[in-house]
Amino acid sequence: MTARTHETLHLNAFLMATGHHVAGWRHPDASADGGLDIEHYRRLARTAEQGCFDAIFLSDTLAMLPGEPQALSRMARTEHFEPLTLLAALAATTRHIGLIATVTTSYNDVRSVAASFSSLQAISGNRCGWNLVTSSNAREAANFGREQHFAHAERYGLAERFRAQVQAHWAEQGGAPVQVLAGDSEAGRDFAARYAEVLFTARPSFESARSFYLDVKGRMAAHGRTPGQLKIMPGILPIIGDTASEAQERHEQLQALIQPEVGLSLLSDVAGGTDLSRYPLDGPLPELPLTESGRSRQQLLVEMAHAERLSIRQLYLRIARARGHLAVVGTATQIADQMEHWFRQYGADGFNVMPAWLPGGLDDFVQRVIPELQRRGLFRSHYTGQSLRERFGLAGPENVNEELVHG
């Protein structure tokens, strides 16, 4: 497969309250209360639009994150706006950038989801996308009257029916939001090959990214689809400096701000909710029981720990940056080099940019990395088209599977 030379990549700004690094809120220039500050998000939206990002991407959960209350109180990411409401507000203060909200199929109502996104489409001028997820946070079950969380396979069966019913509502109205998915498991890959138009994934290395990319794209033909109908966008957390040594100093500054109980709590969460506090911090990661939470991310952690012989402490220091996503520390040129390599060699169609801290991490990327990508002809310098679908170079909404709609 020859390197692609005439295409441009796609970029989403994945905004997480105070930033993606678990200690980002402690950075001296961070907006530590940003999760509940609309002006903070308005500023971020304007910055992302100035950088010509395809879209703003927001995650969500319908319960408190797993972990000890003391640790959760030191993350500055447990309190934030509901994404659809927030994006409706940001639609009024932006003109071009897309607006992608995460909404689970596990604990929501079909008609409510369909109507909410239809409203956001109308408010934004067809600039929205739905990141469909099957809830990985098992705590959500209790909030909706269930004694146990849905089993992994059951969640995907429910998601398939839910999606078809929502699409049926949109087909009656004309015009559907861009379908975004996030998932790395076997079930998630096949679901994405069938339905996703944009796919968010965690890939810490180029080799794993390329393997994942070719696997998912290779599954599409069996579902009557072509590779161009899907944009695969891994997460990337950049820490940028004028020199490589300055970037490393910035990285070390953030790492030094990680509190052990917070790092351990984050690791326990990503590991599927397993309590790791009873194990020695400088000992190996124990065998983890299979859970009904995020299985693919749990497997990624296990593989990383075993391959690099990481202790629990070393592992939580590693994932505190980006929770298993690609983290790049360097100059704008070095970061652009890595992004270009992944893009040209079929490891990604673009990236979900995950600033380590906010607002400065996003400012740095827009001021330093975006111009370098534009200089190389890898990224747009101005918006064209009106809808998010046009921004991603996607055709109109695909036909809804009649058997699923009427079955």
UniProtKB/TrEMBL annotation:
FMN binds at residues 60, 102, 152, 156, 185. CDD domains: Nitrilotriacetate_monoxgenase. Residues 21-349 form the Luciferase-like domain. Keywords: Flavoprotein, FMN, Monooxygenase, Oxidoreductase. InterPro entries: Diverse_substr_monoxygenases (IPR051260), Luciferase-like_dom (IPR011251), Luciferase-like_sf (IPR036661), NTA_MOA (IPR016215). Signal peptide: none annotated. GO terms for molecular function: monooxygenase activity; oxidoreductase activity, acting on paired donors, with incorporation or reduction of molecular oxygen. It comes from the Bacteria. Belongs to the NtaA/SnaA/DszA monooxygenase family. This is Nitrilotriacetate monooxygenase. It comes from Stutzerimonas kirkiae.
